[in-house]
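Still learning. Show one?

>
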Amino acid sequence: MSIEIAHISKHYGDFTALSDIQLTIPSGEITALLGPSGSGKTTLLRIIAGLETADEGTISFFGVDSTNKQIKDRGVGFVFQHYALFKHMTVFDNVAFGLNIRPRSTRPSAAEIHDKVLNLLSMVQLKNFANRLPSELSGGQKQRVALARALAIEPKVLLLDEPFGALDAKVRQELRRWLRYLHDEIHVTSVFVTHDQEEALEVSDSIVILNRGRIEQIGSPESVYDNPANPFVYGFLGNVNQFHARFEEDRLNLDKAESEPKDKRDVSFFVRPQDVGISLSDEGGKAVQAKIVTHRVLGSRVRVELQTAAGERKIEADVSKAEWNGVKGAQGPVFLLFRNARVYSADERWSDYTI
């Protein structure tokens, strides 16, 4: 069973937030909605939750049409970016809130609520903080309380809107690893919104990439990263060298083609920094000539900035220290070797390109 989203569209005046979205969210998995600001990902999440109403289309939760159901009847737990904890309540009372406000006929006993809340606080590693107020917690701890509160009502679906966006980088990394571990323990169907590509790649089972209200690609983290469907996906996912180029006599000229591709010689060229090799020789006769501008040592890797021979293009390479040691003393030009690069023609057909 799964969540089925069929032909969902949403407009705000003349602005189209979502256009004919069709999507299946697998049961028991984490699905990331990923895209730039204004792509429609948060609007889609809010429609799934029932916080927004679609202009067109339907949503079914595990075989049941939920399009017109109210929020309370959808069985969803929602975690917001800014925690939304009750400041005057203790951690324990925040987590217990959703259980305490249930109708008497479905409300667990006080003892059951007590045991359940302590169990959840143990799960999120905050049992010893049960009597503290939110103001006494760190940002990461507040977000874990918010997650425990969402899980307390035993939701069919857990929805998270930029859950780590308000946290600093280190805490964000720790929490997303922790969320992945927690999900593997409880297997609740989860959907989270993020604009952080690394976060989506690390946490999710599947990624839905949106742009301008439309789905560009759906797939596993590995498949969307290794096999992007179009130039937008390639350019959006991860760090990438991206520019227009031209093939001249079977050589790739990066200092030509200033505009979008117009004929078969003009292409959009994409290659990730880790797929750029640097050599002192051009054995195949087709390598791109460049000069080293600067470099930064980043632990075991070296980030090298280069400029093409005509000085028109800057290229970033991410190489090992051993590879860097072999070229760093070069007095003259170096040659760039591209692995797993991709070129897109004017009609966005792509082909792999390797030197």
User: Anything to note?
Assistant: The chain has a mean pLDDT of 88.
